Amino acid sequence: TQLLEQSPQFLSIQEGENLTVYCNSSSVFSSLQWYRQEPGEGPVLLVTVVTGGEVKKLKRLTFQFGDARKDSSLHITAAQTGDTGLYLCAGAHARRALTFGSGTRLQVQP
Amino acid sequence: GAGVSQSPSNKVTEKGKDVELRCDPISGHTALYWYRQSLGQGLEFLIYFQGNSAPDKSGLPSDRFSAERTGGSVSTLTIQRTQQEDSAVYLCASSRTRLAASTDTQYFGPGTRLTVL
Description:
Largest sheet of chain B: 6 strands, mixed
Number of strands of chain B: 10
Structural class of chain A: mainly beta
Strand content of chain B: over 45%
Radius of gyration of chain A: 13 Å
Number of strands of chain A: 11
Oligomer: heterodimer
């Protein structure tokens, strides 16, 4: 059973466009992390959100944690080709392993 | 070391053979995790080591899978009698403190791509 659903699964856009990736669950998490993974490499942590309703910005990336701490979104403004990759959300429960979503593969065309 | 390292980077084996995958975590990190990733998919938790505590093996898919962590550092994931469905990328990660603390960061290695023919 996939506890974290990500949508869309695949996204292909032109450079300069905006996009939003969603991460949804029926479970409450103590925190939620977003990772980006490039081919042949392991995931790299982008951000951790902890408080319900929290919004964090990382340059052109905006991360939001839902008020109920069950969902999150990642918004990218003016996408660049360097944003291409697999984006993974992961929910944390105390004393348990991270639960990863199925991922969103983003392709930014020049 | 500078980061988490894994070896081999690629492993091709025949169905029924045993394989060993190695992970060298970041020096000083007490927690070590193994995950499995099917092509372009999310990560599936396998096993977790924290210091001298008993490992959390709740994610191991079958008794063909086992893992050790010697001296609190290097870890080896062993798959016995490999099956074609074991083909995946096996990722190792380490972190400084306890499992999934709210702000704990896991640092991932590049993975071992296992192909079972």
